[in-house]
Amino acid sequence: MELLALLVRIVILGSIFATSMALGLHGSAEDVTFLFRRPAKLLKSLLALNVLVPLVAVLLVLWLRPPFIVSLAMLLMTVAPVPPFLPGKQLKLGGHTPYVYGL
């Protein structure tokens, strides 16, 4: 059973790595440095991802008082890194390519 858990973990991490690499191969060096060349936009993005979203999640947990496991899931999702499928969806919805790759 322990071997199966290890294999599942390796497959999941490998798929995330492969998806991220595939996405990165479509971007250029200019796309990757887009946000570094626009510090105000970078600061806003980091503030939104790392401060505002977790703050809203904490406020929702305090206000709604869901079961512990739901609260834990909400809070952990807010501090998790960007899922690898998100940039592809953002691009399909018309997101600005350099911004999506830079984020």
Present the secondary structure layout.
Elements: H1 2-26, H2 29-32, H3 39-64, H4 68-79, H5 86-92, H6 97-102
Helix content: over 70%
Task: Give Rg in angstroms.
Answer: 17 Å
For the termini, the CA-CA separation is 38 Å
What is the helix/strand order?
A: HHHHHH
Q: How many helices does DSSP assign?
A: 6
| Class from secondary-structure proportions | mainly alpha
3D shape: flat
The poorly predicted ranges are: none
The biggest beta sheet reads: none
Approximately what portion of the residues adopt beta-strand conformation?
Answer: under 5%
- The pLDDT mean sits at 86
Question: What's the total number of strands?
Answer: 0
Structure overview:
By secondary structure, this protein is mostly helical. The protein is 78% helix and 0% strand. The protein contains six helices and no strands. The protein has helices at residues 2-26, 29-32, 39-64, 68-79, 86-92, 97-102. Helix 3 (39-64) packs antiparallel against helix 4 (68-79). The longest helix has 26 residues, at 39-64. The mean pLDDT is 86.
Sum up the structure in keywords:
single chain; 103 residues; mainly alpha; 6 helices
Give a quick rundown of the structure:
This protein is an all-alpha fold.
